[in-house]
Amino acid sequence: MDWKHLELELIVLRRDFHKYPESAWTEFRASAIIASYLNRLGYRQLSLGLDNIDPQSVMGRPDEAEIDRQIERAKAQLPESCADGADFIDKMQRYPGVVGVLNTGKDGPVISLRFDIDCVDVNETVLPEHRPNKECFASVNARLDHACGHDAHTAIGLGLAKSLIEKKDELRGEIRLIFQPGEEGCRGAYAMTQKGVVDGSDYFLSLHIGTGVPSGSFALNSHGHLCTTKFDACFTGRAAHAAGAPQEGKNALLAAATAAISLHAIAPHSEGSMRVNVGALSAGTGRNVIADHAVMKAETRGETQDIADYVYKRACEVINGAAAMYETEAEIIKMGSATDADGDAALAERVGAVIRKSDLFGSILNDVPATGSEDATWMMRRVQEQGGQALYMVLGSDITAPHHNGSFDIDENAMINGVRALDIIVDELAK
Amino acid sequence: MDWKHLELELIVLRRDFHKYPESAWTEFRASAIIASYLNRLGYRQLSLGLDNIDPQSVMGRPDEAEIDRQIERAKAQLPESCADGADFIDKMQRYPGVVGVLNTGKDGPVISLRFDIDCVDVNETVLPEHRPNKECFASVNARLDHACGHDAHTAIGLGLAKSLIEKKDELRGEIRLIFQPGEEGCRGAYAMTQKGVVDGSDYFLSLHIGTGVPSGSFALNSHGHLCTTKFDACFTGRAAHAAGAPQEGKNALLAAATAAISLHAIAPHSEGSMRVNVGALSAGTGRNVIADHAVMKAETRGETQDIADYVYKRACEVINGAAAMYETEAEIIKMGSATDADGDAALAERVGAVIRKSDLFGSILNDVPATGSEDATWMMRRVQEQGGQALYMVLGSDITAPHHNGSFDIDENAMINGVRALDIIVDELAK
Amino acid sequence: MDWKHLELELIVLRRDFHKYPESAWTEFRASAIIASYLNRLGYRQLSLGLDNIDPQSVMGRPDEAEIDRQIERAKAQLPESCADGADFIDKMQRYPGVVGVLNTGKDGPVISLRFDIDCVDVNETVLPEHRPNKECFASVNARLDHACGHDAHTAIGLGLAKSLIEKKDELRGEIRLIFQPGEEGCRGAYAMTQKGVVDGSDYFLSLHIGTGVPSGSFALNSHGHLCTTKFDACFTGRAAHAAGAPQEGKNALLAAATAAISLHAIAPHSEGSMRVNVGALSAGTGRNVIADHAVMKAETRGETQDIADYVYKRACEVINGAAAMYETEAEIIKMGSATDADGDAALAERVGAVIRKSDLFGSILNDVPATGSEDATWMMRRVQEQGGQALYMVLGSDITAPHHNGSFDIDENAMINGVRALDIIVDELAK
Amino acid sequence: MDWKHLELELIVLRRDFHKYPESAWTEFRASAIIASYLNRLGYRQLSLGLDNIDPQSVMGRPDEAEIDRQIERAKAQLPESCADGADFIDKMQRYPGVVGVLNTGKDGPVISLRFDIDCVDVNETVLPEHRPNKECFASVNARLDHACGHDAHTAIGLGLAKSLIEKKDELRGEIRLIFQPGEEGCRGAYAMTQKGVVDGSDYFLSLHIGTGVPSGSFALNSHGHLCTTKFDACFTGRAAHAAGAPQEGKNALLAAATAAISLHAIAPHSEGSMRVNVGALSAGTGRNVIADHAVMKAETRGETQDIADYVYKRACEVINGAAAMYETEAEIIKMGSATDADGDAALAERVGAVIRKSDLFGSILNDVPATGSEDATWMMRRVQEQGGQALYMVLGSDITAPHHNGSFDIDENAMINGVRALDIIVDELAK
């Protein structure tokens, strides 16, 4: 493997993804480029879009008109070099995401690796010192920015696809490269898991760049992801003239306000921390009209799945009760969800041994605390429930601003050792 | 009829009722004295207690232990002169109230007259200038006071019983003298009406003393009584240690608090005024325990029965929704109710003609606005629905303080003309 | 006066205003056309824009960037025939509105007539049967529609200007034609009144078309306008990550929700009806961020100014208290206001006499109840406080849909008799 | 020392305290017996009642009428054997509690030991199998029960007083035996600390019986007591007839309800757990009267003093803001408070060494988690701030029911080793 050349290729790939960021469930351009790239490498077992998704389990997907617009934009933004991209998009059946399988034809373990490909819904900074601005790969899509590093994850996934297929004959078993849409808001992993994309895996691996770990370091086991449910609650009442016929109204604004306060008053749990937040509320239209609709964006979190289930159940009771108080109807729509699977210590030890031997990193961390929620936990939990082992690692990279901030940028030179580390780990597991 | 002698007797009777006031549904002593008096006069058709009450329709009655205590007290406070009082109490079957019927044996109209007999739950003033204190007939029952004038109503009812039976032979038809328990809080009339005590009446009459009309005046038609429902809402949750296991609790205090606020936020009605009040709220016990119970005393009112129904329906929705928000159970118990029947103008005119001719009063008022709610409206409405006519009159009397105030006292000399007015009216209707 | 010709001119004028509707405080095109028209007629005493406005008293005006955009649009939409329009706009100093004074030079009363010129913020229907669509004068400005008839009021005002100046020599005293911006939302009259535009008037007249009065009828005295205050309440808190540092947040969403519920729970007033409505609430942005801002659009109303003052005072207390509960700051911005002045019966009688004599209308109504709030009441009250007389009349017109509905249209043939009626009334008052 | 005899004496003492339990700030009988006992032993340096209390810092004390009643009862319940008890009570100046000082006259450390003497406000069970019932020492004071073991603490304190004075000549320095009122509800320690009773101490020791540690065990260092503030919030508004003049009311019930909900909605803290509870709420009187008063019993807790301060500060803001919303006044009265001082590891080690050597206990535990809040923490913190060391230990005892339950009873045989352990520790520290 020519690692020197791959180092450059990773940067080119990452910058291309960075320039054309796509939000959850609309990563059609990225998926097309991934499919085209894997196809060119010789991955014949490719499954696209809806083939990897259980549509009943999808959360937080835009409406069909928006999907139409995004497919159109994706096609328009495809590079000339990706001649087969539009065809791949058509095969996706309106859902992004790609799974490429490397079947060695020899008995051996099934190893699944997950790379998330979506961006964040923030504006990228226009400050000239921001490297994407200086070097002309800043986002061209308004209000969208790869401010979480998934552009690097995607590039690393493609780099690994290349290194693995070159040494296919040395490997055993089956390797699945899962390019997942919609990690932001915890929207995509659950629907892929329910479709079965990690079923039968002996090992599951995922990795995140940055998150506080500096360049030159590698963390074996990021644990403590918070269980969470993201949801919208929509209240539907009946409008009426507030002075002329107030008794005719069914006040969705007051129902939502009542719910919002009591949601924050859900009793704490003695077995661990939990959170509730109603982050946004929008209700009504005219000043002199009783509001007939209200929408709140909310989320619940818990240190364990039990606590998270408790607080979400209570949230639903609060919302439905408040709706009933005002004769309104409430609909609760799940917009995202993550659970709290932890990595396997045995796998962390085994991975740690080979990574240490490799001398790729100046510092190897064992356990590092997670910094939020992550929906790869659904895949980890599924694999663990089926008897396999799972690990969520962190590839160190200096960052220029916190994740999700418009000034966020990574250390691009860190990417190559991410590929090499995964290459070594697969080697160890599939030898 | 010796009106001079009756004038004194009314004062004696009234002072006796005043000294031994009894609250709604516990007027056993008063009922015994009424029954004994009517019996002595020769009223053979007496129905007592439960015989006049539909128990399913009873509202705001104390629990059985309290009824036991009150029966015991009533018997203990009976005057020696009322030797048959205790027997009458036993025949009441734990419900007070008396209906005495004067059947003339001749064809003619059925005339029902209603007198309310209960007191108010306030302490009578101890100020020496208050006449009941000066002249030794102040309430001897703690926290109970005839501060609304029902002691006078009862005395007037008995006086009328006497005057009518003396001239029985001149009358036609049937005259019912209804001594009703529980007017305060609008608790008693509905259950009597449901039992049928006014069914078949051609005329229904009631009268109130005072209410702003001065001595020497008489008002023919007091109208505009507000429809109201009095109710308690009891929330039952589950206690839990607030620090040790808050998630185990079901917070009845927060459910009640949430309900209280939104009850006051029920939208106004464009067709007339309405009121909601949560007058009292009591919840929880220990500071560090999640409250497992809460009780609120509330009332709804409306200018018309439709508006009252609207606001009561909304109140129930608010309470049940708030209970559900906190996983608690709510029970709504009706404690009282009144509707909005208005007197018949034709009857007012007819009554006005004879009262004017009588020269009993210096001033005759036609319509006067009602000053609150009154459950005789249930009887008025029933009679009117069956084709009869009804009238709610006011007997003028100077008063020393507002009704329901511990310093309230009436002008006792006003009573005799109340009897004479009713006597004349019955004469007119039953001649 | 050639009334036949004027009838047609009114229709042409009204259709032009209808096609280019302008919202409160942005009626620059309409004001330019009015000024140009009056100027052409010979009105030399014209005062424009800011000269008629007390800027401290302005309510509900858009921000300066929006004013810029609207001035630009107004100029672009001026007809070629109005060559001096852009100059007039420049003289307005960023505030619309025109007052034209006809000074007869002879002693006599000061008569002020007010015409409101703004449109409503609704979309005009696109249904082909709607006459403005059929006859090509539908609104070309998105989300704006003359759905209240102020296009007709403006045309009538110009028609009256024409008829009056033709018979200037027959008149005495001074006649002020006040073309007021921002009646919708009760935004403009108060600032004009505070500037003194009606000061010194002996008579004040205003008229509305439609409002339930059919074509061929005329109502002398529309009374019972509700006092109202329209206001926005803006809550400013502090954002924080809802899971990572909730204690750092100052939750503007919860402050606003708490305020909204208790605003609706303001106690009713025993002396008359009142209303509170929070019609719209918008708070927060991200689902996982504690909301740092919230804005509610609210209004309070009262049957009398005292009641309106009570409810607005209570509303301010509720908002400020709720803000303090959550460590947030609340700013309350008045967006509009009207009071409850009633027309003078003596003036109504005098006007009624001449209108009846005129035979212009098949039916003359005396008192008609007002259908909402109206800020001409500020002008009426000012004139009455200074000893003058005021009247708010209704010019009957069949309408195709309720006022403020996108399908609203008037009976254009009704306009001419509006001009003639005013002409007769001025004649009567200024002869 | 005759430990065998003392073992029996402890049981007799404890059963006497158990039979006559006294609630916080009313422990006059217990204080009299303690003073009398110490005096008899030869403790000449006794300070009583108010001499040990800073009255400004007192929290949760009953009103003076109740103090009168309790002093009277205490005197009536004194045993004949305590002839000087009534005199001691008179010297207490209406505040209970005793500090006895053993001054050895030799240089050496100051050692303070604290024993809490109050009972819990619960009814003792009447079940016959409950030993206090079987053996005739059940509480004779209604609604009061030594259900937390402070009867044993008091007996142990007296036993220690006896053992120490017997070997006074072997000791150095000064030993303070602090018998504290009002530990329940965290009411008494703060006022003693503020008065300076532990000032100048080199060592501070306290011990609790039971709390989950079984008979035969001893725990050296109970840590993690939650910081807490107990408080009552009183809202004062203005009553008004809810139907007749609602606008005159200032609704204390709604103010309190609004506060209660938002108190529970105070945002969690990222640095540790916290709790808020409104355990009881009582508001208003009459159903048809706007409530003019409301009282809530509430508490806030935090894992650290910083968190506790945060949540108490927020609670005050919520209460005052809600009061202002309804034009009411809120008064917040602290009823109790504890902080979070932890024991000194060095002292625990030193104590552990001598306890282990003693063979008194089958099992010695090091750190055990605290089970709630404890106001000895104020004394610990004061001593530590002044450079001293502090320790809060647990004396194992099987218990028959959870603390604060009416069926709670201890293993009386465990008491003697509590005395012996303290005797050994004092020996170690004061040798």
Folded structure, characterized:
The first copy, chain A, is of the alpha/beta class and 431 residues long. The first copy, chain A, has 2 domains: 3-225 and 339-430, 3-Layer(aba) Sandwich (Aminopeptidase), CATH 3.40.630.10; 227-338, Alpha-Beta Plaits (2-Layer Sandwich), CATH 3.30.70. In chain A, 36% of the residues lie in helices and 22% in strands. Chain A has an 8-stranded mixed beta sheet, with helices on both faces. The first copy, chain A, has a 4-stranded antiparallel beta sheet with strand order 8-9-7-10. The B-D interface holds B 185, 226, 230, 242-244, 246, 251, 253-254, 256-258, 260-261, 264, 275, 277-291, 294, 297-299, 301, 335, 372-373 and D 185, 226, 230, 242-244, 246, 251, 253-254, 256-258, 260-261, 264, 275, 277-291, 294, 297-299, 301, 335, 372-373.
Rg calc of chain A: 23 Å
Low-confidence stretches of chain A: none
How many structural domains are formed by the residues of chain A? 2
Helix content of chain A: 25-40%
**How would you state the average pLDDT of chain A, rounded?**
95
Extended strand count of chain A: 12
The pair of chains with the biggest contact is:
B-D, 40 and 40 residues
Give the full name of the CATH homologous superfamily of the largest domain in chain A. Answer: Zn peptidases
Quick overview of this protein structure:
Four copies of one chain form a homotetramer. The first copy, chain A, is α/β, with parallel strands linked by helices and 431 residues long.
Keywords:
4-stranded antiparallel β-sheet; about 425 residues; homotetramer; 12 strands; Alpha-Beta Plaits; 8-stranded mixed β-sheet; alpha/beta; 2 domains; Aminopeptidase
